[in-house]
Every structure is written in C-alpha cells, then in structure tokens.
Design brief:
The structure holds two protein chains of two kinds. By secondary structure, chain A is an alpha/beta fold. Chain A is built from twelve helices and 14 strands. In chain A, the strands form three sheets. Chain A has a six-stranded mixed β-sheet, with helices on both faces. By secondary structure, chain B is mainly α. Chain B has a single domain, classed as MetI-like (MetI-like fold). Chain B is elongated and about 75 Å long. Classes of the chains: A alpha/beta, B mainly alpha. The interface between A and B is medium-sized, with 30 and 26 residues.
Amino acid sequence: MIELRNLSKLFTTVDGPVDALKHINLTVQDGDIYGIIGMSGAGKSTLVRCINMLEKPTEGSVLLDGKDMGTLTEKELRAMRRKITMIFQGFNLLMQRTCLKNVMLPMKLGGMDRARAEKRARELLELVGLPDKANSYPAQLSGGQQQRVAIARALATEPQVLLCDEATSALDPKTTHAILELIRDINEKLGITVIVITHQMSVVQEVCNRVAILENGVVVEEGEVSEVFSNPRADATRNLIYPELSEGVNIFREGGQRVRVIFNGAMASREPLIAKMAVECRILASIVGASTRSVGDRAYGYMLLDIPGTPEDLARAVSYLSKMPDITVQVEAEYAAKEGQA
Amino acid sequence: MNFANAFTPERLQEAWECFLNEFPLAIWETLYSTLLATLFAVVIGLPLGVLLVTGEQKGIRPLPRPLMSFLNVLINLLRSVPFIILMVMIIPLTRVIVGTSVGTMASVIPLTVAAFPFIARLVESSLREVNPNIIEAAQSMGAGSWQIVFHVMLPESVPSLITNITLAITTIMGYTAMSGAVGGGGLGKLALSYGYQRYRFAILYLAVIVLVIITQIIQSFGTWLARKCDRRLKEK
C-alpha cells in the first residue's frame, strides 16, 4: 500500500516559487491499477517522481507499507527504488547496449551474478513477448517493442509497484492498447501494483480501477473509475472525460431551460429516450451536447437538453426522465441561478 | 633565401635521402610523443571531465561550489596559455619529472599538461550529450552515482568520446610539431631545422605532407571506429 500524506512540492525558479503539488492525499491499495490523470503542467510527473523520491517532497510524506520513504538513508532508498520501478514516455533504454544487457542492468546494479542475471533477463524478454530480440539494439526496435523491453527491465528486480509515467503517450493507439494489456497482465499475474500517469482518459478507462484527477497541483477528484466517469463532479474531470463538451455548449438561449441527463451505467441498448419523451409528454427537447462512453457494456456520460416551454414543462420533463433506470437528471445550475434572479 | 632553387634535382635528391634516413625516426618520435601524451592526458582529463559533469550543482553527485569553480578556472587558465609559451613555462617541472627539458621524452610532459584540460572539456561535452532521462531511469533503478558513471554515462557516450579523442590526438600532434622549436623531436623538428634554418624547402614540404597523411589516417580511423561503435545507427 502506498499512502501520500499531505504531500507538497515547491520549486524555486527564477520567476519565483512554483507550487507544483499542494497537499496531496492519496492511498493506493495493493493490486490497484491506479490512474493519475491531468493536463500537461498539472503536476503528474512531479507527483510520480515524489513516490520514488526522485523528487524530494517539500512537505508531507510518502509511505510504502507504512514506512516513510523520506526517512530512509541513501542506501535504503536505493534498495527501496528496486521495489518501486518505473517506465517512461521515452522508454529511456541504453542505446549502446543490447536489449538483453538493458534488462540485465538493474540486476547488475544490484550485484547479481552474470549468469543468473542473464537467465532471468531472457525469461523476462519472453514474458513481454520479445524472446528473439535479446541481441538487438533498441534503435532496431519499434516504439512498442522498446517499451516492452523497458517493462522487462522494470520487472527485473521483482518490484511491488510499477510506476508508468506517460508510458503510452508516444505510441499509436493500437500499440497503446497492446502495452496496456501487458500492464494489466503483469498486474494480474504478478500481483504488482501499478500507478499510471497519463493525460489520456482512454488509458484510465482501459486499465485503471481507481483514478485521481490532478489540476494545478491539487487532487480535484478521486474514486472508482466507473464512479468518476458516471458522475464527474469537478470541471477538470468533465473537461478530461468529455473534451468535446468543454466549449460551445454553455451558450444559453434567452429564457431557455436546460437539463443535464446523466447516464450512470444505463444498459447500452437503451430506449430511444428523447423520441419517447416527445411522444409521451409532447416535449420536443433539443440535444445541445452529448457525450457518453461505454465502460464494459454500460453507458456512462451525459447529455444536455434544452427544454422549450414553461417551467411546468421543464418539471414534467425532469420527472419523466428521472423515472428511467440508471439515469439522473439535473437542472443546469447556471440556468437555475438565472431563474432565481428573475 | 632563394625559393626558386629549392626544388632543383640536387635538392630533391637530398630530400629523398633525408626521407629515407631521417624520416622513419622522426615519424616514430612524432607518433610516440603524441600517443603517450594523449594517454597521460586521458588518464588525467577523463576523471576530471567526469567530475565537471557529476559535480556541478545539478549533477548526480554535487561537489562544493568553490571546488568546482577552482577546477573550471584552472582548466580555463591552462587552456588559454599558448602551447609554445606553456612549454617554456613548465621547463622546471619537466626537469623534475624527466631529468631534462630537451628531447622527445621531455616534450611529453608539456604536451600532457597542455592536453589534459582540453581532454577534460571534450569529455565533459561528450557526457553532457547523454540523454538525462536515461540517467534518471538509472536512478529510478537504485543506481548509485559511480554506477551511473560506469554503467550509463561512459558506455552511452563511447562514440562521442572516440570522436573527441580523435580530435584531441590530431591537435596534440600539431603541438608536437611546435615542440620541435624548443627541444622536442619528431617531424616538426625536422621541418623546422631543415626548412626554416637551412632553407631546405623540399624537406619541409615532405615533412608537412607526411604530417597531413598521418593526420588523415588517424582522423579516418577515429571516424570509422566511432561509427562502428554507435548502436544508434539503425542500418548496423
């Protein structure tokens, strides 16, 4: 279990101090695939580097199984880093060494004898699906293959935790999918806890069970992935999950009435909701924006509807839609506020 | 001085005899003083270059700021003294080490003193080319500072180090020619004593041609070796 307690990081730059992380509290349970998502500059990379103390936190602590990483001696810290290994966006393999030598490196650094290290390195290359690339150099491999070698290298010291720093950001969608599958495999078969840093919601959606949303160095939302997807509370979360809705839909028609229809895992083959409402309630709602995603076979997301007519029509629409299973309805706050003023 | 008479048949004949009789030893002296000086300069300059990179404030093992400033100033000082003057300046040191300040062996000392700061700077620049993310990756594996130097920084910069040391060898060979003016041996001395003092231009040109050929061979070999060692080139 990894606990971040009140973690802050302050960088001193020529333009003055920069708060990269502000009082972060997170708990990652053993066996989790934990996503940390945010736009560039949100502090994700700093956060992940605080976990293995490549960056020393200014304040707060990182606990691995209850042990405070900040109190370790240099030697203990190096030993601990062998238990929390890392893969990177740029793979960061030694370019002048073969794949086999790359995978052997962490074992050599730890003082393992050559024969054993080589045997284990070959097993690991087999595990990541590249047994025939042992004597190839990284430059001869594709990006996806290089990341596989990096994963084999990260597994060499039998870690408890694998940190993935934008590990799929340099890869095409198909390769991303394959690498994520490998990461999930490793999580399931070897029981390694995984922390995934990314700016892509699709990555979180595909592999993570929990997610934290980071914005300007603050965790604005945290929870089960399905929960966060179905009912994003923070604006930053909405922008990440439904980037297509982040602009252009907040223009209110004068006197308009808008509701947000939220799908909390409604079955994908649901009823034609808007058409049914038109027939049964005679309310001709127009869809001003919508974004839904499938997680498993269920739909998550939301739809913004403008409801024409009187406030009574609005109330009827809300009560009609609310009766549907796995759907909640909110009258848009901005609209409600406007109505309050009127 | 009569330049027109420099290439008469008699002069050419004389140059040819000189080439056969004196050039082999001169070439040998040039080569061994160059290579010996390079070897010593690398022995001193390589660790110094490593320190310049690892010891800076953002390096993997920061050293006290005053020490780093001292090293940098020392290197800049030695690099800014013209070689021919440096040679004279350190005659006392040369006497202490070799016992004499004259001869090819004695010239190795000033050559080394002139070359090691140069090598340190070249090593520094080679090591700075190493992708810092790879160094970070090594740190994330729990590598210590010296492990990073020996397992990551030096191996990763081998092609660049070969290129830079080739550059150093050709530069040091230029210095050996200068050392001919102040007691050193080799092709430089031959060219100066025959060509400058006795107006035997044919011999001077011959010496220059041989120097150019040796430089070309060393440079080509260094370039070839650096390319051969570089595993980043996909077509290998």
